[in-house]
Design brief:
The protein is α/β, with parallel strands linked by helices. It is 38% helix and 20% strand. The protein contains 13 helices and 13 strands. The protein is elongated. The two termini are 40 Å apart.
Amino acid sequence: MKRRRFIGLFGGAAVAWPLATAAQQASKPVVAFLRVGSPDTSARYVAAFRKGLVETGYTENQNVTVEYHWFDHFDRAPALVTDLVRRQVAVIVTPGFTQAAVAAKAATTSIPIVFGVPADPVQLGLVASLSRPGGNATGVNFFATEIVGKRLRLLHDLVPKAVRIAAFLNPANPTTTAPTLRDLQEAAPAIGLQTQILNTTTIADKDAAFGGFERDRPDALFVGPDSFFFERRFQFVELTARHKIPAIFAFRAFVEAGGLMSYGTDLTDMFRQVGVYTGRVLKGARPADLPVLQSTKFEFVLNLSTAKALGIEVPSGVLSIVDEVID
């Protein structure tokens, strides 16, 4: 059976719930894992989540059932969350999917929610405070938005002659885009940069933006921390190479795909931490008593081959602070 036959319920969420094994699964706690993207592009992160579960004594298909729900649109989360609440799953897990975390918080005050969000969870209304969440939600804040200024400075250090920076942002994801835009507008002038905002919600938007570079080419690119961009990282890398534009990304996966540089949280560790908290909740811990974790592992990753192809000579000062060089 083709994979697309499995995708349809809730418009893009792949729900694995075989009738033949329903009785067996009912004897195990059910964890609903919600994520934008696809199993293929998130395989590393799913493995890290499972590792976190194992660290707390839970092994998938042995003493816990994990339902994986994959989305291609943010606005489809509420419908699935409503069904999960009706079915009373044990935990709702939303690593890197802020809209699903917010929808789950609005839909239930009893089912535990373990999130991984790039922005302040207090401002998002998910918890009362970081140290005392006080409700049914807790998780990890992985700081994808708060370090915008640091990304700009690193880009400026590597490409000091760059002045005009084009920034790809996704207005369909306001919980991440709004703080990113705010920080861009504050940080860029302070280091002498001019920013052009490229609102990108569709593939057509992306293609139109890069097409415009034939007439009006920016000095460098800033690609925002958004799952739409992450899922299309190979396209972004190919297009930046074709147009010979240096770019900085939020996640190392772009650099592994051939992008120039990235600075951001170690997402693999974030997923592992979400797995650990999920296991602790399954063992009876109350989300209200589990402080929100804040990521402490950040990575500056640089692709030297890409730098060479772009004609960039990497300053020794930049090389001295790189966490990992891909050659």
